[in-house]
Fold this sequence. Notes:
Tetracycline Repressor, domain 2, mainly alpha, 0% strand, Arc Repressor Mutant, subunit A
Amino acid sequence: MSGYPDEPSGHVSASVKGAASRADARRNRERILRAARDLVHGPGELKLNAVAKACGIGQGTLYRHFPTREDLLVEVYRHEVDDLVAAAPQLLATHPPVAALAAWFDRVAAYARVKRDVFAAVEAATWRDLAAHSLGPIGEAVELLLAAGRSAGSIRTDAEAQDVIILIGWLSRLDDTELDSRGPRLLAILVDGLRTPGREPGT
């Protein structure tokens, strides 16, 4: 005997089938979140049937992952926060601290669009809860970036994470036109303000 009874008979074990099913479910979930993130910026209310159509799945599959529109919107926001927080150490691994901070601010601008549109679409109690729970992880990401800059001497020593969070908070209040036209310039001004006095750009 081979010791692998499923192989000669051509049968796939239950564990393999289960792993494949879970992988399919994860892929579907990611596709749903990507489609919803794109569609939440569109005109009118986000429709679950539009999300299902955009990612080529049945509505039943979508409802198994997200029973309500608010469930989906909440997860879109949480996913965006997770990506934003994860970007901080990734950028520090490949960029000097000030450049990493500037690149992270580019991600913040994209996050601000999602935050604005999701918060406008969910109940007030929901967005207050989301804001309260995301503040800590985002603050930790900011502090990681600032601490690296302070250690390298390129970020001013009196800069605090809460300062940055307050200053970038206005981004989610801007419409798309303002974000596109003013956002990059205002974030560049913020980076210059955080830089150690006397340090040249890029140092």
